[in-house]
Design a protein that fits this description.
The protein is built from eight helices and 17 strands. The protein has helices spanning 31-42, 120-131, 146-157, 200-214, 230-236, 240-253, 272-292, 325-335, and strands at 3-7, 15-20, 47-50, 59-62, 79-82, 88-91, 98-99, 113-116, 136-138, 165-168, 183-186, 219-224, 261-269, 299-303, 309-310, 313-322, 343-346. The radius of gyration is 24 Å and the shape is globular.
Length: 353
């Protein structure tokens, strides 16, 4: 058996299943999910599948040279999308630049270019193929105006076969008004854990926990490749206190807030060499003042953010962490003239990416 079941006496009608995807044959749809979809379709019940990835695929890769095309303006992989007429195109989710799909790899000219990673459009295609149902897709593009929201509600209230399966991004952790959902499926409960940040587990927990709380009458199926990860297990147990206790151990061990202060200095520039030069100059000045004022408990290091280039500008962080940080920031703010050097300062940073 590749899943565990969690029961909560406060919500007896809600069953929560945590699936270990490491033991599944199908990479995206576990046996439990497939069985559940078939069962609830037969019973004319409503199924919500939370994908949390827009488009058809997360990125594109060449299977000859393994090149992953990136946006010309941002250091992110280009996502694979289909337009309303099912015509494919590439899209940057940061700057929204569109690209025509080439017939060959831009690097090695191979024709072996394939989309990779599961997006909401690909799930819709799978549902259509396997169950002969065209699901309702709800993402930010479908609810970014009052008219679109009204149209979406009209579609859901029609009660036809297509409304049996709803596909949504993280927006649908908040229930849809006047819509009863019987089965909620998280295809990838690890989505936030892929972010290299000390708040990753916290975001992952709240992503799951809020949805589970908001659908108290629904059966919940959570698919995960990290079923032992504390944010996932705590959410499935609906135990916020347990999560906070375990997250506190991690934060205390590595001296992250609230067990120390954290400050991030971000610098951006169109010219990469100038970026390095200006960051390095300030970094050396900070080390000098740290030594001068004998603040040995403060950590100072440089690192690129998660997205190194955005909208044509390169980006780099200087991270400061420690118990005596506030006094040190006051010192360097005046002596190093931070603002005039175009550094953006986040005195109480809640992220390092």
């Amino acid at each position: 058996m590749n899943y565990e079941q969690f029961l909560n006496p406060h919500t007896p009608n809600q069953k929560i299943f945590l699936v270990d995807m490491r033991k599944e044959v199908n990479y995206h749809f576990s046996e439990l999910v497939q069985t559940g979809i078939e069962k609830y379709i037969r019973q004319n019940k409503t199924i919500l599948i939370i994908v949390n990835k827009k488009g058809y695929a997360s990125w594109v890769i060449c299977h000859q040279c393994w090149h992953i095309p990136q946006c010309n303006h941002c250091s992110v992989s280009i996502s694979y999308h289909n337009d309303q007429n099912n015509n494919p195109f590439w899209l940057c989710h940061i700057c929204k630049s569109h690209y025509d799909i080439p017939k060959t790899c831009p690097k090695c000219q191979s024709q072996n270019i394939r989309p990779y990673g599961l997006g909401i459009q690909q799930v819709a295609d799978h549902i259509q193929k396997e169950y002969k149902i065209s699901p309702v897709i709800i993402d930010s593009n479908k609810v970014n105006s009052p008219n679109k929201i009204k149209k979406t509600h009209t579609t859901l209230e029609s009660g036809n076969k297509e409304t049996q399966i709803i596909l949504g991004t993280g927006l649908l952790t908040t229930p849809i008004k006047n819509t009863t959902v019987d089965l909620v499926i998280f295809l990838n409960a690890d989505i936030w854990l892929n972010i290299p940040d000390y708040t990753a587990a916290e975001k992952n927990f709240h992503f799951l926990y809020e949805a589970i709380q908001n659908y108290p009458e629904s059966t919940i199926v959570v698919q995960s490749f990290n079923p032992d990860q504390y944010s996932i297990r705590s959410a499935c147990k609906k135990d916020e206190k347990l999560f906070l206790e375990q997250d506190a151990v991690y934060r205390k061990q590595y001296r992250y807030p609230p067990y120390s202060d954290l400050c991030v200095l971000l610098y951006k520039h169109e010219i990469e060499e100038r970026l390095y030069a200006n960051v390095d100059k300030l970094y050396k000045e900070l080390l000098y003042y740290k030594e001068k004022y004998q603040l040995d408990a403060i950590e100072i290091y440089t690192t690129p953010p998660l997205i190194y280039k955005k909208f044509g500008k390169f980006r780099y962080n200087i991270i400061l962490k420690g118990d005596q940080l506030r006094n040190f920031i006051d010192i360097i703010y005046s002596k190093c003239n931070i603002n005039a050097r175009w550094f953006k300062i986040d005195r109480q940073a809640d992220s390092i990416v």
